[in-house]
Every structure is written in structure tokens, then in C-alpha cells.
What we know:
The protein has 2 helices and 2 strands, in the order ααββ. The protein is mostly helical. The chain has a domain at about 145-205. The chain has a two-stranded antiparallel sheet with strand order 1-2. The chain is rod-shaped and about 220 Å long. The protein has helices spanning about 1-165, 175, and strands spanning about 195, 205.
Amino acid sequence: MITSKIKKERGEGALKWIAIVCVVAFAALSALLWTQQKRSSAEAEQLRAQAAAAEAMRAKLEEQVAAGEEARKIGSQDNLELVRLRGEVATLRPLQKQVQQLQTENQQLKATVQQLQHSAGESAALRNQNQQLQGAIQSKAQIDTCINNLRTIEAAKAAWAAQYQKQPVDTPTDDDLFGPGKPLPQKPVCAANGIYTLNQVQIKPTCTIPGHAY
């Protein structure tokens, strides 16, 4: 019986040790699994962060590519604009020479116009002087003609007074002095459209134009 008891105690002790080993193994395995899970979570989080960074980098690269494409288009447009402007400059260069030539000719024309204007001013002054001189000559000629007419009328008055024995205070009429069989065939006319007044025999005839007198 002692042997059976010993065997039984040994068997129970072995079971205890097996149970302890199982518990320890389970605890170790649980710890290992928890560590592995935590590591997996950390790796997954790291992978997610790397994926997000990769996505951000991809988006940034796409933006850079789009910007580069836009810049390429703008650069191409700028190149076309530059080529167009160079063509216009090449076309305008001969025109610039023509403009300079026209400016020079314009300055020469201005100088010529100024000379002509100066000459025109002198010519206008000479014409004015000539007109004034002609007016003075014409006025002098009209005065001389009118004075001769007045003297002719005075002579006709004297002939009429002598023929008809008129007194100095007598005044002739146009019918007495002018007409057929009269001292004068017709009445003289003032060149300046003045009107003659015969007056008395003793008074000289007069003209209504100022300065027409002797």
C-alpha cells in the first residue's frame, strides 16, 4: 500500500508539474502572441503611414508633372510668341528707316512751310502797301478829276452870267448850264459818286465828298 501511495503521490506531482508547465507555456505563448500582435499593429501602422506618405508623394509628383506640362505649354506658347515678335521686329526694321526718313522730310517741309509763311507774310504786307498806295493814287486821281470838274462848272457859271448879265448872287440851275446850246453839253460827274452843288455866281461850286475842293 505504501508503494501505491507513493506512486499516487508521484503521479499527482507529475500532473502538477505538467499543469504548471502548461500554464507557463500558455502564458508564454499568450505573451508571445500579444507581443506579435502588438508588433503587427505597429508594423501595420507604419505601413499605413508609409502608404499615406507614398500617396502624398504620388499626388505631389502628379502636381509637379501637371505643373511641368503647363509650364511646357506656356513655354511653347512663349516660344511661338517670341518667334512672332521676332518676325514683327524684322518686318518693322525697314519701316523704322522709312519713319526716320519721313521724319527728316517732315522737318524739311516744316522749315519750307515756315519760309513760305514768312514769304507769305511779307507778300501780304507788300500787297497791303500796294493796295494802300493804289487807293491813295486813285483817291488823288478822283480828287484831281473832281477839282477839274468843279473848275469847268465854275467857268460855265461865269459864261452864263456874262451872257445873261446875271448878278453875283444869282444861282443857275442845271438846265441853265448843261445841255444842247448851253455852256456845257452835259453835267460833269464826280468819280467818287459825289454830288455837285452849283451855288451862286460868286460862290465856287462844291462836292459832297470831303477833300474835293479847290
